[in-house]
Amino acid sequence: MSVIGYFNGQWVDPAEPCVPLDERGHQFGDGVYEVIRAYGGRPFLLEWHVERLFQSLEALRITPPFDPDGCKALIRKLLERSGESEAAIYIQVTRGSAVRNHLFPEPSVVANVSATVRPVPPTSPEVKPGRLLLLPDERWLNPWIKSLNLLPNVMAKQTAHDAGADEALLVRDGCMIEAASSNVWFVQNGELITAPADRYILAGITRRFVLELARDLGIPVREEKLPRERLAEVDAIFLTGTLTEVYPIGSVAEHPDIPCTPVSAARPAARTVTPEQVQVVWTARDLELVERLRTAFVERVRAWVGSFA
């Protein structure tokens, strides 16, 4: 089925204009969003996604246009309307439409809600390990809020892509804390290490699920920041995300002219990065534990879908 769109109670064609020009999300990125994966025609980990959406709304002082139950009902309605079994549901809430002004609009201006539902291919039984590119973290100070302001993430991921990598591995204060659009995990001596959910990372829903999964499997987990200088000690790396699921990493590269040191006050020069310019600085030694987690993730999702049969 084709992609469906939604805006403030109306079903719309995603390719057609429907958002006012004086829309806060359009002009300021003044809003928040969630992406929910549907398996077997049901939104997965919906409670957690809605909980995080409301946390982000509260952080940005946006008055929710619905309560949590109403939000969940809308997400289920979107999925039902799409007719898709395997899908990605994107829902966005902004501060509303008002004449452009940096100050918040009058309280009478209500939030705008938009959404899309797109089909997603079923999880592949085999995944080729990816590559990360080390980059300095240039995001703002509150990545824990799932806001629409993603330009630094976009620039980092595009730079990684230009360098022949699949994702950026962001370094802040000397530590490898997150990827541009997913959480990062390290495996060392049979133990998982991932950055704590402080203000500098997004507390991923799949991250939360994998934390529980690892503990159920008896795999030790440490939530701490791993310094860049300790990358050589790492046996394996993987990413987690709503659409990424559990994604193994085979190598990490670095650009000799892009140091992962604290960002300086000097304006950076425009730079074009190519695969020929980067150097591989780490290669996976043992992905067995990552594959165990990936298999367990797929099995847990399959069991969850089967529980509704």
Total strands: the figure is 16
Biggest pleated-sheet summary: 10 strands, mixed
Provide the number of structural domains. 2
Q: Structural class, from helix and strand content?
A: alpha+beta
Q: Please tell me what the overall shape is.
A: globular
Span of the ends, CA to CA: 23 Å
If helices are DSSP runs of H or I spanning 4 or more residues, what is the number of helices?
Answer: 6
Regarding quaternary structure, what we see is: single chain
The helical percent reads 10-25%
Q: Write the CATH homologous superfamily of the largest domain.
A: D-amino Acid Aminotransferase, subunit A, domain 2
Radius of gyration using CA atoms only: 20 Å
Order of helices and strands: EEHEEHHEEEHEEEEHEEEEEH
Structure description:
The mean pLDDT is 96. The chain has helices at 24-28, 46-59, 68-82, 151-162, 205-216, 288-306, and strands at 4-7, 10-12, 31-39, 42-43, 87-94, 112-119, 130-136, 167-172, 175-179, 183-188, 191-194, 221-223, 226-227, 236-241, 245-254, 279-283. The chain is α+β, with helices and mostly antiparallel strands and 309 residues long. It is built from six helices and 16 strands. The chain folds into two domains: 4-119, Aminotransferase class 4, branched-chain amino acid transferase, N-terminal domain (D-amino Acid Aminotransferase, Chain A, domain 1), CATH 3.30.470; 130-304, Alpha-Beta Barrel (D-amino Acid Aminotransferase, Chain A, domain 2), CATH 3.20.10.10. The radius of gyration is 20 Å and the shape is globular. Strands 7, 8, 9, 10, 11, 12, 13, 14, 15 and 16 form a ten-stranded mixed beta sheet that branches. A six-stranded antiparallel beta sheet has the order 2-1-6-5-3-4. The two termini are 23 Å apart. The longest helix is centred in the last third of the chain and has 19 residues, at 288-306.
